[in-house]
Design goal:
540 residues; six-stranded antiparallel sheet; 8 helices; disordered N terminus
Length: 540
């Protein structure tokens, strides 16, 4: 039996509104057929309900029902024309409201028709409503939520005061005095804000990833530092142990040699004593034999003939010392002390070499320099002038104390610089916190915000602590290294050329620290040389 759709032309099954094959066809009371969505949209946009073809007017909107026979024939024609090749809606996707049987994926939703369209049904909808104010959006399944609950109108305005979406009627009633904008404008603004927020979040993520990497690198550096410290300590202690073992062996050998010498001397004395004893015993025997004779003539004649007694040595003061002298032990301990001092020097040299890797470029700040001080143009030297300069009395300037700070402050990390003091007989160096008192007489000490060491009277060195600490320096420093470990709470000073440690302050820092310099007074022309911030060079 022939297919009915093959006996009819497809034009007979085209909607006169969308000019496409019927979709959910309905018949009006006048007998004309249309797609349900098409005739519904046509009547929605018109003040009266009339047939688009014969113009018959219906004073009451007809209750239309789908013509099932026409629907089946239309679907067969649609299938024959391969109009259903679009992809079917998958779970989670919005299906087309006008597809029968296999539902195709919707590509747009209309806020006026409250329906979703696949690509096939979208084109006739657009052709029919191109002059109407239908609003297409990306396909949504909850299209009813796009209507105002109060007025059943499309939500197309945003109230910035209440931060909600409203319809046009709302702007004329409840939200009449509120600041409102179109959804598109608010969407663009909020989208821009969202992008900014997203960019900020991404930046925070990058910053934190960078911080994580910094921490990991710090841990790795700490591990490498611990490994170096371990190797250096093992080297130092191996050298000390070897020195101790060697010194002990030398001392034992010396003790054994002295003992052998004592044995040899004792053996010689015993041999000499035994020889004297033998002679004395022989003499005693002769005397005893003569003492037993009763012949007067024989006794008197034999007595003068006896040989003279052997020479006898005075053994009263002859001794063999059993106690060994402690001088040898003292000598060995002294050598160990020298070895330990040398190892400490090497250790401080290694420490100083590592610290020098934290070198920073320090420049003097002229805004803090006392009016009597003269700074070099490059900001690397400071000396006492012969007259007071006319300088602005700004709050950060020292006056009258002869002090100056560095431009660069430190609130974290490790920092090192070197200052050449040369043959100066008085000076002060170190760091000072930002909030120190800079006017009038100042007192040096951690309790006043200063962590410094200094030289006085040409040969005395002090740590300006509380109380002051006299520093017995065996060598006069020509160049002083200053090391600040802000996070570790340490300020250390080194004799750079001697590669030796001078002094270390330990404290907790809560504000920015600045390098501190004071060349002090002339002292009758003996202290005129400047303090010089010198480039940091390797101590090797």
């Amino acid at each position: 039996m022939a297919n009915p759709s093959s006996l009819l032309s497809e034009e007979q099954f085209q909607c006169s509104i969308c000019l496409d094959i019927f979709t959910r066809p309905v018949s009006t009371p006048c007998g004309h057929n249309f797609c349900m969505a098409c005739i519904g949209g046509y009547w929605d946009s018109s003040a009266v309900c009339q047939c688009p073809l014969c113009k018959e007017t219906f004073y009451r909107r007809p209750d239309l029902r789908i013509n099932t026979t026409l629907k089946e024939i239309s679907e067969k024609i649609r299938t024959r024309l391969n109009l259903s090749e679009e992809r079917s809606a998958q779970p989670g996707e919005v299906p087309c409201d006008f597809c029968t049987g296999r539902k195709l994926r919707a590509v747009k939703s209309c806020l006026v028709c409250l329906a979703s369209y696949c690509q096939i049904h979208l084109e006739p909808h657009q052709r029919v409503n191109m002059l109407m104010r239908h609003k297409l959006i990306e396909p949504v399944s909850d299209i009813e939520d796009r209507l105002c609950k109060k007025h059943q109108r499309v939500l197309e305005v945003f109230c910035r005061e209440d931060q909600i979406c409203v319809c046009q009627f709302c702007t004329e009633t409840d939200h009449r005095r509120h600041a409102t904008v179109s959804l598109e404008e608010e969407f663009r603004r909020k989208k821009a804000q969202l992008r900014e927020t997203e960019a900020e979040v991404q930046q925070k993520i990058q910053d934190r990833l960078k911080k994580v990497e910094e921490i990991r690198q710090a841990v790795e550096l700490s591990r490498l530092g611990a490994q170096r410290e371990t190797e250096d300590s093992e080297q130092v202690f191996r050298a000390l142990v070897c020195s101790i073992v060697r010194s002990q062996a030398e001392l034992l050998e010396l003790i054994e040699e002295k003992h052998r010498a004592a044995e040899r001397r004792a053996e010689g004395l015993i041999e000499e004593l035994e020889q004297e004893i033998t002679e004395l015993v022989k003499r005693c025997t002769e005397l005893e034999q003569l003492s037993h004779t009763e012949d007067h003539i024989h006794f008197l004649q034999s007595l003068p003939a006896l040989p003279p007694p052997p020479h006898s040595k005075d053994w009263a003061d002859v001794t063999v010392t059993s106690d060994l002298s402690l001088e040898n032990l003292r000598s060995v301990v002294f050598k160990l002390e020298e070895t330990l001092r040398e190892e400490l020097k090497n250790l401080y040299g290694i420490e100083l070499k590592r610290i020098q890797q934290c070198a920073v470029d320090v420049t003097l700040d002229p805004n803090t320099a006392a009016p009597w001080l003269i700074l070099s143009k490059d900001g690397k030297q400071v000396r006492l002038g012969d007259r007071r300069q006319a300088l602005p009395d700004n709050p950060e300037r020292f006056d009258p104390c002869f002090c100056v700070l560095g431009k660069e402050g430190f609130s974290s990390g490790r920092h090192y610089w070197e200052v050449e003091v040369g043959e100066k007989i008085e000076w002060d160096l170190g760091v000072a916190r930002e909030s120190i008192n800079r006017k009038g007489v100042i007192k040096l000490g951690p309790e006043y915000g200063y962590w410094t060491v200094g030289q006085r009277n040409g040969n005395k060195y002090w740590a300006n602590a509380n109380p002051y600490v006299l520093l017995p320096l065996p060598l006069k420093p020509q160049k002083v290294g200053v090391f600040v470990d802000y996070d570790g709470g340490q300020v250390s000073f080194y004799n750079v050329e001697a590669r030796s440690h001078i002094y270390t302050f330990t404290d907790t820092f809560t504000e920015k620290l600045y390098p501190y310099f004071s060349p002090n007074l002339y002292q009758k022309g003996k202290n005129t040389a400047p303090l010089i911030i010198s480039p940091v060079c390797d101590t090797d």
